[in-house]
Amino acid sequence: MSNDIALQLDDLSHTYVRTTLRGRRSVEALRGISLRVRRGELVGLLGPNGSGKSTLLRCCAGLLRPSGGTARALGEDPSVPASGLRGQIGWVVRDDRSFNLRLSGRQNLMLYALLEHVDDPKGRIESALGSARLLDVADRPYRFYSSGMKQRLCFARALLTDPPLLLMDEASSGLDPGLRDRFHEAVRERVDAGAGVLFASHDLEELATLCDRVALLVDGRIVREGAWDDVADEARRTFAERAEATR
Fold it and tell me: pLDDT (tens digit, 9 = 90+) per residue, 138-174?
């Protein structure tokens, strides 16, 4: 694996068992995914709800072991606990529930910085709060944060270790347009600093303006990949068909 590759997926698949009133059945969530994310590149993972985006990101982060194929994050298997990837992958998700409600934003970050053995934790926290545009509310208790503030604190936590790989799942959910623009600027700053980013969203407009490259995920398969102009027509058609089917 080349040193400039932050994330490499080869023929990745994942199958799980769903239990319903009618019994148990196997579901193919991912089907032969191959994808590269280079350092200094922001790749968008676009797909309708239920297309497999979150499952794919969880496999990339080592939270799920794939059923087949391989995932390599920074040259290592993320599903192996002793892989040496601790602190090397930043994880940003929608509706994160792991923060302490009674602590302030700054105190929550200090807790995570200590758990991750971050060098110069105070300095890293101030830098992360600044990147997430949270310095003015850093000492406010987390329970009083808006949904947008919570999302930005999750992003700030991901930056504490200055990770070379960021995995982001609907990370701008809940942000007002102005804050979303500033959030995008902060993500691009990480890319310009050399991080590889895989950014999952079902928002076509967001990925059209944010990403260097886009992979369109439909029913667990990447059906088109390339610059936005190469993906746009099929993406719009896919989303239009899904919207029509739900009427």
Answer: 999 999 999 889 999 999 999 999 999 999 999 998 7
Q: Give the whole-angstrom CA distance, residue 122 versus residue 223.
A: 44
Alpha carbon distance 212, 216 (integer Å): 13
Provide, rounded to the nearest whole percent, the portion of the chain with pLDDT above 90.
80
Whole-angstrom CA distances from 75 to 6, 55, 79 are 7, 20, 12
- Mean pLDDT (whole number) for 95-120: 94
pLDDT for residue 2 is more than 70: no
Query: Which pTM value belongs to this model?
Result: 0.93
Longest alpha-carbon distance in the chain: 55
Judge contact between 166 and 87, C-beta under 8 A. no
Task: Tell me if the domain spanning 5-88+163-245 has CATH number 3.40.190.290.
Answer: no
Q: What is the dihedral of CA 238, 244, 245, 246, to 10 degrees?
A: 120
Q: Give the list of residues 6+ apart from residue 105 with CB closer than 8 angstroms, or none.
A: 129, 134, 137, 138, 139, 140, 142, 145, 149, 153, 156
| The pLDDT value given to residue 1 | 59
| Residue ranges per structural domain of the chain | 5-88+163-245
Structure token pair of residue 108: 């929550």
Separation CA 238–CA 63 (nearest Å) = 29
For 147-230, list the strands marked E by DSSP.
165-169, 196-201, 213-218, 221-226
- Rounded CA-CA distance 13/219 in Å is 12
**Taking 80 as the threshold, does the pLDDT of residue 245 lie above it?**
no
Kindly report which listed range (53-62, 166-175, 206-215, 224-233) carries the lowest average pLDDT score: 166-175
